[in-house]
Amino acid sequence: MAKILVTGGTGYIGSHTVVELLKSNHEVVIADNLINSSIDVLDGIEKICGKRPDFVKIDLADSKAARDLFSTHKDLDAVIHFAALKAVGESVNHPLKYYRNNIFSLINVIEGITKQGISHLIFSSSCTVYGLPDRLPVTESTPVKSANSPYGNTKQIAEEILSESCSVNKNINCISLRYFNPVGAHESALIGELPLGVPNNLLPFITQTAAGLREQLSVFGDDYDTPDGTGVRDYIHVVDLAHAHMAALDRLIAQNNDTNYEVYNVGTGNGHSVMEVIQSFEKVSGVELSYKKVARREGDIAAIYADTSFAEQKLGWKAKLNLDAMTSSAWKWEQSLRSKKG
Ligand code: NAD
Ligand code: WQD
């Protein structure tokens, strides 16, 4: 059993990972400023696990507050750093907000673990670092392309900061996980994604449309060079993604890592088009979705999906849940949200 600090642990991916950590009998401290999550998430976690994680409300971009956090939690074995702002469009209009939040938080976390002698760190990176790839599927050695948003740039800069910090400080062992498109929710429907306002991402937009909150889904582009002309992504069930963090943590704790900075793609390895996601959703929900094909969304790429063989080989992890499991759990979560809100 280890004691793990989970930053951003009341958020979407963080909360699902906290559930898996508690299920494996780890002790968890969540640090979150609740800027994009709700304290009620702790109730959902407790209902699933029968245990409530410790919670500290803190802005990790505030260096003094972060120093205090690390000095009052000296006995941590590892940190999983999810906390970040993630809205691509907002980051274009408010770049400094994104650089300040995402980069300052990371620096404060690295300084905290260095000072307290905590050696294990897992960082949430993104497939966005690949930009528009020349070849598919993307491997971890596919070149990082110039970012097309400040948000994407924060992930590239963060990876550089981590790689450089690890190269001068061999006491830190870090794994960056490059997530592809996380979707779905816990099978209990007690935790899930809570988008603020109008969702930017495909699956929450689909479930909100089916639930009657949105009039119609716009399918952005049907003239891409893909089998059905719509955009192709590597959707990964959030519970599979949570398990990838467990595998990364085990690798670090067992000191099985080959180098003190490793990077892994975390996807399923399968590309699905927007139309395939809609068809899966309609099949599992029995709801006919209102949608319309419109022009491409600016900044979108035609297709991206992962080569996941490195994670399979080194982490012993592979995604298990298919697209129908993703869309059905997302729908169950949306329905549970609506039944709570009446
Ligand atoms: P989320 O917004 O649901 O969770 C992030 C959490 O961090 C929230 O609870 C928020 O309140 C908290 N937070 C943000 N800034 C903070 C700060 N300064 N101090 C303390 N807490 C702060 O997002 P998510 O989807 O769970 O994403 C988690 C991580 O994974 C992020 O780093 C994100 O960039 C990355 N990521 C997400 C996706 C995705 O599509 N969801 C894809 C790739 C990478
Ligand atoms: C998926 C597909 C859209 C909405 C984003 C971030 C990326 C990463 C994951 C954090 C695309 C289409 C979408 C809609 C649509 N996040 N779509 N109608 O853009 O692949 O990635 O989340 O790191 O950085 O950019 O995800 O869910 O927005 O789009 O047709 O209303 O669905 O064009 O093909 P994306 P998405």
Structure explained in plain terms:
By secondary structure, this protein is of the alpha/beta class. It contains 11 helices and 13 strands. β1, α1 (12-23) and β2 (27-32) form a beta-alpha-beta unit. α5 runs parallel beside α6 (150-168). The chain is globular. UDP-4-deoxy-4-formamido-beta-L-arabinopyranose binds next to α7 and β8.
Summary?
It is built from eleven helices and 13 strands. The protein is an alpha/beta fold and 342 residues long.
Which percent band covers the strand fraction?
A: 15-25%
Largest sheet: 7 strands, parallel
Share of residues in helices: 40-55%
Shape label: globular
Query: Which structural class do the helices and strands define?
Result: alpha/beta
Rg estimate, integer Å: 19 Å
Termini separation: 41 Å
Hetero ligands: nicotinamide-adenine-dinucleotide, UDP-4-deoxy-4-formamido-beta-L-arabinopyranose
Run of helices and strands: EHEHEHEHHEHEEHEEEHEEHEHH
**Within the largest sheet, what's the order of strands?**
3-2-1-4-5-6-11
Report mean pLDDT, rounded to a whole number: 97
Give me the count of strands.
13
Total number of helices: 11
Contiguous uncertain segments of 5+ residues: none
